[in-house]
Amino acid sequence: MAGDNSTTDTHALGPQLSVADIVIITVYFALNLVVGIWSSCRASRNTVRGYFLAGRDMTWWPIGASLFASSEGSGLFIGLAGSGAAGGLAVAGFEWNATYVLLALAWVFVPIYVSSEIVTMPEYIQKRFGGQRIPMYLSVLSLLLSVFTKISIDLYAGAVFVHICLGWNFYLSTILMLVITALYTIAGGLAAVIYTDALQTLIMVVGAVILTVKAFNQIGGYEQLAAAYARAIPSRTVPNTTCHLPRADAMHMFRDPYTGDLPWTGMTFGLTIMATWYWCTDQVIVQRSLSARDLNHAKAGSILASYLKMLPMGLIVMPGMISRALFPGLRGLMIAVMMAALMSSLTSIFNSSSTLFTMDIWRRLRPRAGEWELLLVGRLVIVVLIGVSVAWIPILQGSNSGQLFIYMQSVTSSLAPPVTAIFILGIFWQRANEQGAFWGLMAGLAVGATRLVVEFLHPALPCGHADTRPAILSSFHYLHFAVALFTLTGAVVVAGSLLTPAPQRAQIQNLTWWTLAKDLPPGAKTGDIQAAQKHAFWARVCGFNAILLMCVNIFFYAYFA
């Protein structure tokens, strides 16, 4: 039994790939190469603006597809399906919550970022607050989180999945995926990443729809799902926090705030804080919106991504629940879908991390660096990230995937809320200054890191054992902790800002919601009435769709509550 967790002979678990499976996988790789080469040749790769922001000429549909694909890495893909199998529907709240923060990104955050003429998030903070210590902290934190949570989880999940299905060596699977994703990321920059993300989105959605239809046909439709899930008690169980028994509240989105595994209070407030960090202040996501041709394209991209984020409930979570009783086939399509999820997230992380290091760290070390040097450094950073990712593989192999998912959530809830707090206060409170923001960040880091250390020293006990962990872990859900940490950081920022001099008016001009200059629509400056009317029309279309989207989201929340 000791070999159950090994990665040596796992391919024996399933049948060999059929000719149809091989054709699907081959076509998938071929499409990736074609789109990657085409977009790399088409992209403006010889300027910083062109390489890192796609020339700020991207239209709405690839932006929306890329926002979705960047967030749906293989780690999240497997995590949602696995959590759906273990705990039911509530985990879909992580996807549906994105609707509101994506709209906030396009209507609130992006106008300020565009008006401040920035490329990275630490660059905005440097303009808003001044000084060097906060931007440097945010740059280093973002790079560390990218390597040790995002890349780690996606690589582990994707490589293990491909290894199991194809029987390839774990290292070979990982290195092959890294090399393919790096080729067009290094060559074409953000434009190549966004266009290939659009292809990955199409593959993920079509593949997931086919697999979902097959799964529901086998189980007898949605009506049979609840009954079949409740009966799906495995003959062999592996001890963990749920003991693999179906939850009584599996079909409910809103769960008890005290005893629920995903309490509704945490999913409403704590998750929104973490989602605001991810969707509105994280370089991976915001960089796509900053590449938009104008604000209407940024808004439409967010709306498309929000509609796509409604799909994982039916396409990932429910099939995960069905998998407790059934194990649908179509291995070639499953591999293509998983590879699409993995490659889209990896390219996004590589590109954004390269942008962060080049624009926020290298430019400070070499303030006179020219465009050619910055572009070269940006490409070399991706190569270094690949090396670090490969070196990280032995640690991933020695870890349990379930522990890794818990680890990622814990790290985010402990480190992200302070960042959210300083961005929110920096945008909406003109009085916030550098001293208050810095000490708020440090207070949040101290408390968050303390909880993180305690959590690693006292891991969750197997089911059936009394929970003897400290109260900060056993009685304080990580989503509730995110709310407390956000509040603490905000309080320190407010206190520190009020005790020190206020920022000058010139320092906050065009950098807060209240000092943002009204931007004239395209055509207004040149007297092109037709262009101005067209812009106003599409602005109304975006506003109508935003309202419709929120109505759809609220309906689904109410239906599954």
| Spatial separation of the terminal alpha carbons | 41 Å
Oligomer: single chain
Round the Cα radius of gyration to an integer and report it: 23 Å
Kindly name the structural category.
Answer: mainly alpha
Count of DSSP H/I helices? 23
Overall geometry: globular
Strand percentage, roughly?
A: under 5%
Helix fraction, binned, reads: over 70%
State the order of secondary-structure elements, H for helix, E for strand.
HHHHHHHHHHHHHHHHHHHHHHH
Largest sheet: none
Mean pLDDT: 81
- Number of E-type strands: 0
Low-confidence stretches: 1-15
Mind explaining what this structure looks like?
- The protein is globular and about 65 Å long.
- By secondary structure, it is an all-alpha fold.
- Residues 1-15 have low confidence and may be disordered.
- The protein has helices spanning 19-42, 48-53, 60-71, 74-87, 93-96, 98-115, 121-129, 133-166, 170-219, 222-231, 264-281, 283-290, 295-309, 312-322, 331-365, 371-391, 393-397, 401-428, 434-457, 471-474, 478-498, 505-508, 529-560.
- It contains 23 helices and no strands.
Give a quick set of tags describing it.
globular, 73% helix, mainly alpha, single chain, 561 residues
Map the helices and strands.
Elements: H1 19-42, H2 48-53, H3 60-71, H4 74-87, H5 93-96, H6 98-115, H7 121-129, H8 133-166, H9 170-219, H10 222-231, H11 264-281, H12 283-290, H13 295-309, H14 312-322, H15 331-365, H16 371-391, H17 393-397, H18 401-428, H19 434-457, H20 471-474, H21 478-498, H22 505-508, H23 529-560
Helix pairs in contact: 1-9, 1-15, 3-9, 3-12, 3-13, 3-15, 4-8, 4-14, 6-11, 6-13, 7-8, 8-9, 8-15, 8-18, 9-14, 9-15, 9-16, 11-12, 11-18, 11-21, 12-15, 13-23, 15-16, 18-19, 18-21, 19-21
